[in-house]
Design brief:
Blueprint (H helix, E strand, L loop, with lengths): L5 H11 L9 H23 L10 H10 L4 H22 L7 H20 L2
Helix pairs in contact: 1-2, 1-5, 2-4, 2-5, 3-4, 4-5
């Protein structure tokens, strides 16, 4: 049985839905929400196209470029949105000096939702 990457998206939604008055470590939740939203979208996109590592190329860049370079406008849109979302994910995962706001986390989850919706439109 394989892992259902959509569970990461649902977890990201749960993280941004917490009451800020009682949430402990809200910025931590925001960072996790962005990361989980990205990985949900990335892995579902990768699996949709059955993309595997090629010649040792970094898998994230490969997946994003495969979609961005597509002649299909929906796939191109997915690539563009993944490209924006990975930048937010890198900031959330690696840049401790950046403030990751509720709004940024909410936008990341909405972007992931848009990517997932677009992927659902593909055959």
């Amino acid at each position: 049985m394989t892992f259902d990457w959509l569970q990461y998206y649902f977890f990201a939604q749960e993280l941004i839905g917490q009451d800020p008055l009682i949430a402990i470590g809200k910025e931590c939740d925001n960072r996790n929400a962005i990361s989980r939203a990205y990985y949900a979208a990335y892995n579902i996109a990768k699996n949709k196209r059955s993309i595997v590592y090629k010649n040792g190329k970094f898998s994230h860049a490969l997946v994003i470029e495969e979609f961005k370079n597509s002649s299909n406008p929906i796939e191109k849109h997915v690539g563009d949105e993944l490209s924006r979302l990975i930048a937010d994910r890198v900031a959330a995962d690696y840049f401790d000096w950046k403030n990751i706001s509720d709004r940024k986390a909410e936008n990341a989850v909405l972007t992931a939702e848009e990517i997932l919706r677009s992927l659902g439109e593909l055959k």
